[in-house]
């Protein structure tokens, strides 16, 4: 557990910024080290104990900041004053292709948001040469770890084109963005570790997913996704149960195995740009962690192959379903949803499935028989 008590600093932020140590758990593999010094351009006294950083900007620069942070989750839940303080404090920084913005081992001074261009992240471990582990594009952000944990930079971040960044000083980051960030990471950390799909990820990759997740709640019987609708979100069940229903071309309804905590759904529509292939409803109170499409693509990249592999199982399932076609018994013939059409159904799930051949332990849309299910994460 980190605290500022190892610091002999008399920096002004230390009085104002009680380190929320109980809130922070050190990410795995993260080296501790000396804290950095503080840097800020112009400081305006505030009504509180700290001073605010204000760097004057043109309206055009402000607009560019707004665009850059619009899709970044760390800025999402700020109130108006916090938002204003963050925009005021940001400094425009430009780097040329191949320049290092951050060097592993250095002290942390700024947190960065990418306006334009791209960057690669390299980590050198145990004396081995640095390996590329990640990349950033517009809207991405980095450099939070050293500021959150008062440690050395955990990675080298290098421009792979000429870039424009917005830099937020350490004090403002800690005062406004850190609490939210660490609370979310803490909130989802234990849960994400239990999601089979995500076990192969690095802890830091799960942290980034936590930053982007939002919890959504559904009441008993409430639909989460409707077959035939366009899909914009991916869901992981945090708690509760969900029913899965598949409709055939005639609008006949077939129940599929339900879903429980740790299982995911909604991936097919995002992967394949297809309409939703089934209807999922809450069975009792349901809590899901959800990711938007962009975050899904960006953050689940490392497990997309696993997701695709799981979804290939649908082919096998469909073949089995076709063999069992005669035995299918629809439970009703309600239309799936207003804009659903048979033609818009995912080919992988175009047929309804007889429940007995489906495993209830499989993720939705991958209700594979046991031998196929072994492919799952
Ligand atoms: P920082 O302040 O330590 C370097 O400065 C930044 O690179 C770091 O904050 C993160 O924002 C960013 N491990 C550590 N830092 C990473 C990683 C990373 N990826 C991006 N950064 N990874 C784990 C490698 C074993 C990569 C995970 C995908």
TrEMBL record:
Protein name: cAMP-dependent protein kinase regulatory subunit
Annotated positions binding 3',5'-cyclic AMP 2: 267, 276
Segments of skewed composition (Acidic residues): 1-18
Organism: Linnemannia exigua
Subunit structure and binding partners: Tetramer, composed of 2 regulatory (R) and 2 catalytic (C) subunits. In the presence of cAMP it dissociates into 2 active monomeric C subunits and an R dimer.
Keyword Repeat carried by entry: yes
Region of interest called Disordered, as start-end residue ranges on this chain: 1-28, 326-377
Biological process annotations from GO: cellular response to stress
Highest taxon, organism lineage: Eukaryota
Binding site for 3',5'-cyclic AMP 1: 144, 153
GO terms assigned for molecular function: cAMP binding; cAMP-dependent protein kinase inhibitor activity; protein kinase A catalytic subunit binding
Pfam family, one: cNMP_binding
Keywords, comma-separated and alphabetical: cAMP, cAMP-binding, Nucleotide-binding, Phosphoprotein, Repeat
InterPro entries for the chain: cAMP-dep_PK_reg_su-like, cAMP_dep_PK_reg_su, cNMP-bd_CS, cNMP-bd_dom, cNMP-bd_dom_sf, RmlC-like_jellyroll
Residue ranges annotated for the Cyclic nucleotide-binding domain, each copy included: 74-194, 197-317
Protein family per UniProt: Belongs to the cAMP-dependent kinase regulatory chain family.
Record-linked CDD domains: CAP_ED
Biased composition (Low complexity): 326-365
Keyword Chloroplast among UniProt keywords: no
GO cellular component: cAMP-dependent protein kinase complex; cytosol; nucleus
């Amino acid at each position: 557990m980190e605290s500022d008590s190892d610091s002999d600093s008399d920096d002004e932020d230390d009085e104002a910024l009680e380190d929320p140590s109980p809130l922070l758990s050190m990410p795995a593999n993260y080296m501790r080290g000396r804290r950095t010094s503080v840097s800020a351009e112009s400081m305006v006294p505030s009504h509180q104990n700290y001073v605010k950083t204000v760097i004057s900007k043109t309206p055009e620069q402000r607009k560019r900041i707004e665009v850059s942070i619009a899709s970044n989750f760390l800025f999402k839940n700020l109130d108006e004053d916090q938002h204003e303080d963050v925009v005021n404090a940001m400094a425009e920084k430009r780097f040329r292709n191949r320049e290092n913005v951050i060097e592993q081992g250095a002290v942390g001074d700024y947190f960065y948001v990418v306006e334009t261009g791209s960057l690669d992240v390299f980590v050198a471990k145990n004396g081995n040469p640095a390996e590329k582990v990640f990349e950033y594009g517009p809207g991405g952000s980095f450099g939070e770890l050293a500021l959150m944990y008062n440690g050395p930079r955990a990675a080298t971040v290098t421009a792979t084109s000429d870039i424009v960044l917005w830099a937020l000083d350490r004090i403002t980051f800690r005062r406004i963005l850190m609490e939210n960030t660490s609370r979310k990471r803490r909130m989802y950390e234990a849960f994400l570790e239990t999601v089979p799909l995500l076990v192969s990820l690095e802890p830091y990759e799960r942290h980034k997913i936590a930053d982007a997740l939002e919890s959504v709640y559904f009441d008993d019987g409430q639909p989460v996704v409707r077959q035939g609708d366009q899909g914009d979100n991916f869901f992981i069940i945090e708690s509760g149960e969900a029913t899965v229903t598949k409709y055939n071309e005639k609008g006949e309804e077939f129940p599929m195995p339900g879903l429980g905590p740790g299982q995911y759904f909604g991936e097919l529509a995002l992967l394949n740009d297809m309409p939703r292939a089934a209807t999922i409803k809450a069975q009792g109170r349901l809590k899901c962690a959800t990711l938007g499409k962009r975050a899904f693509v960006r953050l689940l990249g490392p497990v997309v192959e696993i997701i695709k592999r799981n979804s290939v199982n649908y082919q096998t399932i469909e073949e089995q379903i076709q063999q069992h076609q005669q035995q299918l018994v629809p439970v009703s013939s309600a239309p799936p949803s207003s804009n659903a059409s048979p033609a818009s159904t995912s080919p992988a799930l175009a047929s309804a499935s007889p429940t007995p051949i489906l495993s209830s332990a499989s993720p939705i849309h991958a209700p594979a028989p046991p031998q196929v299910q072994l492919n799952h994460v």
